[in-house]
Amino acid sequence: MTELWYDLEPFLQQGTLGLVNGAFYALLSLGLAVIFGMLNVINFAHGAQFMLGAVVAWMLLSYAGIGYWGALILSPLLVGLLGVAIERTMISRLYKLDHLYGLLLTFGLALIIEGVVRNQYGVSGLPYGVPDAFRMPPVDLGYMLMPAYRFWIVVVSIMVCLGTWYAIEKTKIGSYLRAAVERPQLVQAFGVNVPLMMTATYGAGVALAAFAGVLAAPIYSVHPAMGANFIIIVFAVVVIGGMGSIMGSVVAGYMLGVVEGFVRVWWPEASATVVFVIMAIVLLLRPAGLFGRK
Amino acid sequence: MAFNRRTLLAGAAAGAALPLVTPLRHARAQAANTIRIGVMNDQSGLYRDLTGPGSTQCVRLAVQESGITTRGVNVEVAEADHQNRPDVGSTVVRQWLDRDNFDVIVDVPTSSVALAVNTLCRERNKVFLCSGAATSDLTGPACSPNTIHWTYDTWMLARGTGGAMVAAGGRTWFFITADYAFGHALERDVSNFVRNAGGQILGSVRTPFPGTTDFSSFLLQAQQSRAQVIGLANAGGDTINSIKQAAEFGITRRGTRLAGLLVFISDVHALGLPTAQGLVFTETFYWDLNDRTRAFTQRVGRMPNDIRPSMIQAGCYSAVLHYLKAVEAMGVAAAKASGAATIERMKAMPTSDDCFGEGTIRPDGRKIHPAYLFQVKTPQESRAPWDYYKLLGTIPANEAFRPITEGNCPLVRT
Asked: Closest Cα to residue B325, out of B347, B310, B309, B340?
């Protein structure tokens, strides 16, 4: 038994750590799925908006003395407002065109946002510590010592993911939103302000990315490319979960985080590629993704 | 990650960027009396703060302080981004050397790119002054009569940090290694050093480069090996993430020590003293080391993002200053005619500058100067902005680098 336990230990450890990475994948792919599902826009700026969330958290701390908890609310709000401005002035003009235009526009935006932050703050990163409330010795799980802050990440991301799913699938506003995706003219005719809803949806998706950015700031280096490192994987997660499927992106996010963790034990060099291998297999077997509807 | 957005576009970007980085054709008429310096490094990725535009700024200072332009020689400095990719770097350098008649390539961090440039400059008989790259192969099996490896190398880092760690009782090691030429060379050199000192290597894990953000899995694997020392054979953002997450997981609290094998001042700045304090590492330049380094830092002025010069950037200054001395000594025409002859001349002259003091260049292309073992100060010890290091020891110039007989450099075989 002890030997079995010893063999299992690395997998339990990496699985647990994978959940933390999975939490970020889930939060980011959730935002992407919401934006794609409702707006039909492939938001390539999502990684940059994630990074902005972390950078704004740092700015709030350095320039205004606002700590982690304030940043957790304020930073998504501010970055979300920026998203609203972007949607109003640029993205809203592209809804009638092919997906490719939205993708190119947001890709360009991502490069601009990253470039501005890089010029302003360099690439080495900005120091952001773990909040005081979590400054305690790591929790002993029996098979590993887990920093309290990483628990918080997993818990809060599950809450946010479930909340978002509930809001879209089970509430009245969510039903308007889903109806507006299917028949925008009809919903508009019923007196619902569809363009406003689109704007709010994009703002909320961006705010989700920024929220994930604030969560990441204490444990990852806060630097201009931090989102770019994530975003391609997150796109793969969205494809695996099924484009536009809320539940699919969340489940696939956690699942792939854990799988990636396992691969880090067996074959660390391949850990960056495994997600794409899975994506290829899923596309071959279920082109619509694990949770996608054809 | 195997690819990211930057790499996806790299091919296109390299082609598109070339016309921008070589706007020098107007000067054809004066070409015979013009020295062209190409500074190529990482201008946008994780090594930008250590190299990047700061290196170019230091090169321009060297040109200005050499005074060569006041004596009728034109010097043109261009810069380019190699995005840490050998294919992009090779394309830029080929165009510089073949089309635009550049005479010297400077900096080139990222060992895989530097090894490619090393070959290109040799084939075309130009000068390569390597400051940014770390692999000791540049003065080993890959040594070239057209290359000088200026600032530091993996052997020196192994000797400095590895030696200090083993001397302090760290006998068992586990490596977290960036999976490319630099990481492999650094791991190899430190491993040799540890083994020769009677230590033991318990294992290593290779992390995908670039694009790894989460190092906690690798840190836990390292911890599980029960090694006394975790050697970080990586650089820049990878090192920052490793150290930040090691602190978070309390890795060092249980007696395991972290050896940052290549740490720069911008890394310490990004980590902040509360996280970085106590870290021991080796560098050949620190802005606050002595009056001469302080004077240099003063003269170089405000750097991009207000950072202090890294040893790589200081190395670019020092290398170009010495190169221009050799050009003056032998004449522009002779210097342009043969890169190897220019390098020969540089090797024959002793070096002297504010960054590295007095030094020499060995026949295998290794620039020789002292190395310094530093420790990061605690927040209480630090009295001013960028007051980060305290000096633990000096490794004299004749001991800091690999003995010339041990490098297997074909140039020195008799």
From this structure: B347
User: Which phi and psi (to 5°) does residue A231 adopt?
Assistant: -65, -35
Distance from CA of B221 to the nearest CA of A (A): 8
- In this structure, whether the domain defined by B5-152+291-369 belongs to CATH 3.10.20.30 is answered with no
**Closest by Cβ to A229, choosing from B4, B49, B217:** B4
Taking CB atoms and an 8 Å limit, are A225 and B237 in contact across chains? yes
A221·B272 Cβ contact <8 A = no
Q: Is residue B394 less than 8 Å (CB to CB) from chain A?
A: no
Find all residues with CB under 8 Å of A282, minimum gap 6, and list them: A239, A240, A289, A290
SS (H, E, C) chain A: CHHHHHHHHHHHHHHHHHHHHHHHHHHHHHHHHHHHHHHCCCCCCHHHHHHHHHHHHHHHHHHHCCCHHHHHHHHHHHHHHHHHHHHHHCHHHHCCCCHHHHHHHHHHHHHHHHHHHHHHHCCCCECCCCCHHHCCCCEECCCCEECHHHHHHHHHHHHHHHHHHHHHHHCHHHHHHHHHHHCHHHHHHCCCCHHHHHHHHHHHHHHHHHHHHHHHCCCCCECCCHHHHHHHHHHHHHHHHCCCCHHHHHHHHHHHHHHHHHHHHHCHHHCCCHHHHHHHHHHHHCCCCCCCCC
Task: Give B293's pLDDT tier (boundaries 50, 70, 90).
Answer: very high
Q: Which of chain A's residues have a Cβ under 8 Å away from the Cβ of B244? A: 219-221
- What is the count of residue pairs from A and B with beta carbons less than 8 Å apart? 135
Residue A122 C-alpha, separation from nearest chain B C-alpha, in angstroms: 6
Where are the domains positioned within chain B? 5-152+291-369, 155-283+370-400
pLDDT of the residue at B13: 44
Whether A225 and B45 lie within 8 Å, measured CB to CB:
yes
Identical fold for domains B5-152+291-369 and B155-283+370-400, yes or no, is yes
User: Could you say which residues from 5 to 64 on chain A have a Cβ atom under 8 Å away from some Cβ of chain B?
Assistant: 9-10, 13-14, 17-18, 20-21, 44
Which CATH architecture describes the domain B155-283+370-400? 3-Layer(aba) Sandwich (3.40)
Which residues 154-213 of chain A have a CB within 8 Å of chain B?
none
How close are the terminal C-alpha atoms of chain B, in Å? 45
Determine the pLDDT at residue B29.
47
Contact status of A217 with chain B (Cβ, < 8 Å): no
- Distance between CA atoms of A49 and B123, rounded to whole angstroms? 46
Residues 282-321 of B with CB under 8 A from A: 304-305, 307
CA distance A249 to A177: 18
Give residue B414's pLDDT band: very low, low, confident or very high (50, 70, 90). low
- Measure the CA angle with vertex B210, ends A275 and B118; round to 5°: 140
Q: Where are the domains of chain A?
A: 18-120+138-224
Q: Which of B5, B43, B179, B308 best tests the A interface by mutation, with the highest count of A CBs <10 A?
A: B5
> What was the pLDDT predicted at A191?
87
Residues of B in Cβ contact (< 8 Å) with A147: 248-250
pLDDT tens profile B225-267: 889 999 999 988 889 889 989 988 888 777 788 889 999 999 9
Give pLDDT tens digits for A69-98. 999 999 999 999 999 999 999 998 888 888
